[in-house]
């Protein structure tokens, strides 16, 4: 606009004509025109009045060449000035002169200073902790650009605030924030402070109560008593100095195993989550009362008197010191207590007394006492012995008893049911006088004396009758005569003589009433004559035969062979019989068949063979005839009635246990049972082939064959299954439940040894863990790749499960692996300091052709972030680190951003810059592979936080940053070793930065 005004003025002047030029040349020079410089505070649209000396006419204003045109505004008529903005500019004031004087101009500067302003209005913020929550701060009264930053000496562990006022909740606590308004173009800057308070979150926790008045029961388990909800991380332990003989406590679950009576105290630490209210430790009391000793037992004692012996009263279940004493008013002449502590007694007499047994108890059991009866009985004896007496009758004979083994006085008497006319007996001596033949029973009694039990013994006295040795009967031969009577001749009998047909029913027939013997057939008949005798002679018998001349006849019978069928009846193939048939077993097995002589059939009983003699007795005109009859019964194919009481035995595995086989029903005659199990499953069970008793060796399913070998059936097989279920696991235990290790890249930690292991161990992480952090191998080894990120737990929970193997159910145990920060001296290539000057680290790791390798870094405040770019211009990675003036106590801290770049050198001399985590292989010209790589660590002002890093002082990291080079194992000469990409080298980077 100012240039347009000058152009118009120039045109008007040029068109004025010759008269004007003449007039001007006649005027005098303008007196001195002088304008003072102006300095004024900004105020919107306020007029400026310049102080000009020597004016003759109306002053006009214009901007000097190159002067700022936004400080003041020149009015359209060029006569007045108004403030636009603060700043400095230069103006030209022109006085047109008058009729006498020429026009003149002068220069002056106008300086508009920033105006004072009202202070910013801020509000303190108080917010509850919420992890990673974002909020926006605000102020009132801002006139320009507003920027926010932590006030000096404030902790950076509460919030991370950006310049625009948005902040991230990082922890809990209070910090002061500086907010600065630069005032914009026209107003002065103002800085105010406000406070941001992040309150710790309320922690939900449990309130524990005493566990008291619990009875002592060794091995019983108690659980903590509480109300509310415990925190996720909780730890139980006995209070230092508390009684350790009452309970054993599980540090994680609080489960208490009773090991003794008494009182103790347990401390509970409930770990609050980060930035939550701390939960104060609690202590609760555990009280286990002494138990009544119900196990104290002693049985009443009944023992036999022994003058020289000593005996101990047996007591079981005692818990303390025992004492033995006689009860009050108990007989004292029965036993003597020799040792009142051991219960040792000796014998004084016969009888019953009472003994009090007292147990003093112990720390777990109350005192207890009981009373028992002690009975001393007479010495039992079976020494009394006597011999039975047998003698032939002799008139007035005296017989002495044969008795030994008595301990006291003997007495003799006849038994109640014995006749009294056979002998006369002396009650003291036992001498016996014979009266007549007969048999009596004599009782001899021994009173036992002072200490022995009485005893009795019986013996018999037999007085035999005299034998008639003079009885005579003579064998006779006669001719057969139908219906004839046979009368034997008897000599020297002592009583009545009777006759019996002994063998020869086919020859003789005796009338049942008269006793007359008639001849009914031919053959030899045996007769027995019986002389009944008298009181002094015994009956006498004499056997004799009578031959009756016979006639002859014919008889025929065929052999039989068939298979066994229980109870089957078959006809006997017989012909040519004349008289009555007689069947007689000859040889073989006499229980094969049963013959029905009348029906001439036989019934099958068992398998086998038998031969019979069949005699046709003929008749009055025929002699008896004998033939053989042979029967062979073959075994049947199988015993269909053989059954087992069950086809499945089911039990649980127990080491050394046995199991009886099922009951067998329907066994055949004379059968033998044998048992066989599958040898391939002998690890499950083995069986005694005779008794069928199973020995349990392991869990699983096996089959057993039961084989019957019997007389009537061929080999019969039945089978049953045995299912052995897995036993309950006694509980997997670990050598330790807590491991503490210092981190270094790819560190491998073995799992703690297991106890009570019966099978294969399986390992599993309690929570999902990134494979970039750690990996769990099947054998339980954990490989720690990186240190846990900020705000992540520095421990891993590992669940170890024993599958129980063949014989036990599974069981699990858990241990915690705590990972502490890396320490120097664990295998790093070097521990180096970074002072802000570019630091180059060259890796000694050799890389095989076409193989990928890369770097990573961790351990700082923030995570590694890739900043990709053109390979030749420089891709790189960044990482935010915390540095402190007091790194030990983490005080006076700030954040800086590190830049990490992998520089790959190509064979043509060029270089390629990439983020350190880049896994690109062919990056050089012509898709070739770099020949070497190095990592450069630098500090660049344009990166986040670095521009604020201006306060003087020395800043250091509290723990080192870890730089790791990952590559496959490789040896020079082109040999690639087995293995995946792994941490091949690492360095510890300590930041040591100084601002001057």
Overview of the structural elements:
The chain is mainly β. Helices cover 2% and strands 46% of the residues. The strands form 28 sheets. Strands 79, 81, 82, 83, 84 and 85 form a 6-stranded antiparallel β-sheet that branches. Strands 78, 80, 86, 87 and 90 form a 5-stranded mixed β-sheet that branches. The protein has a 4-stranded mixed β-sheet with strand order 2-9-8-5, with no helix packed on it. The protein is elongated. It starts with a helix and ends with a strand. The relative contact order is 0.04.
What Rg do the Cα atoms give?
64 Å
Give the integer mean of the pLDDT values: 87
Q: What low-confidence regions span 5 or more consecutive residues with pLDDT below 50?
A: 1-22
The number of distinct β-strands equals 90
From the spread of the alpha carbons, the general shape counts as elongated
Strand residue percentage = over 45%
Number of helices: 2
CA(first)-CA(last) distance: 50 Å
Main beta-sheet strand count, sense and barrel state: 6 strands, antiparallel
Give the helix proportion (percent range).
under 10%
Which structural class best describes the helix and strand composition? Answer: mainly beta
Short note summarizing the structure:
By secondary structure, the chain is mostly beta strands. A hairpin with a 6-residue loop joins strand 65 (685-687) and strand 66 (694-696).
